[in-house]
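Protocol step 4 of 6: record predicted structures for both targets in the notebook before any analysis. Target 1:
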Amino acid sequence: MTIDVHNLCKQIIELDSSIRFAGIPNKFGKQIVVEYRKGLTPLLTDTESELHAVESVMRMNTRKDYESKLGKPIYSFTLYEKLKRTTISLDNKDYPVLMVSFDTEADHESIILNKIIPFVKKELSEY
């Protein structure tokens, strides 16, 4: 049984009105699914978004180098002037990370810990 990553990202967008984007790349960083909030104009081109996905997967993989001492990475976060971006570890060999962006005023940590991660764990436990 395979994960329905398209539906997963669509549902993540609906979890909170401050979520702008949800995307899942494969283990090589190739974007498998990209979902944007309805009516949103992306800030990055498709090419820039693809490159960002590759870099996000690579960065999460380097964080795993310290897993034995620091524990598993849960998520990483970057605040930009125009948005907030996070990369959430999915602990899945085919789909290693979930990338999500938020409006700048979002309470991202609460949304990640109380909405996104519980939702994703529930959905992935079915596979």
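Target 2:
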Amino acid sequence: MFSIKLKQKNNTKAKRGFTLLIAVLATSIILSISLGIFDIITKEMKLASLGRESQIAFYAADAGVECAFYWEINNPDGAESAFKKTTDGQGQAITCGIWDNKPWSTPVGKSDKSTFYLPLGDTSCAEVTVDKLTTNKTTITSRGYNMSFDGTKCGTDSARRVERAIK
């Protein structure tokens, strides 16, 4: 009888080690799956954020095109475009949008190609180039950014800067 009891004790110790091994394996499998799901969620959040920033940049470019179209058609100084090259080289001021609670005005028409920046609050900005190729042909290129106007250009050279263009 004594030998049977010893075998039972040895058997119990072996089962305890096996149970610990199964518990460690199950925990590591669950941890691996959790880390994989976390990685997928992080990437999806980055993609969703990029889509939002892309939309902001596109709407900024669209606002720049609309501003240029408006001044191409509705020049207060006469029947011709506000972007037509002036003879005195001074150009004229156009106003689109509000920046720092003031109407944003910039001179255009100093040459055949006019470039102006359109600040759109703290979230976006547009760089618009109007090229008067001939009297009957005008090319408008608007580049929208998801960054604000810093006084000289749209946004900084950030890794998170998104640019969308409309021509």
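Step 5 preliminary note on target 2. Residues 78 and 110 are 17 Å apart (CA to CA). The first strand starts at residue 92 and ends at 99.
Proceed to step 6 after PI sign-off.
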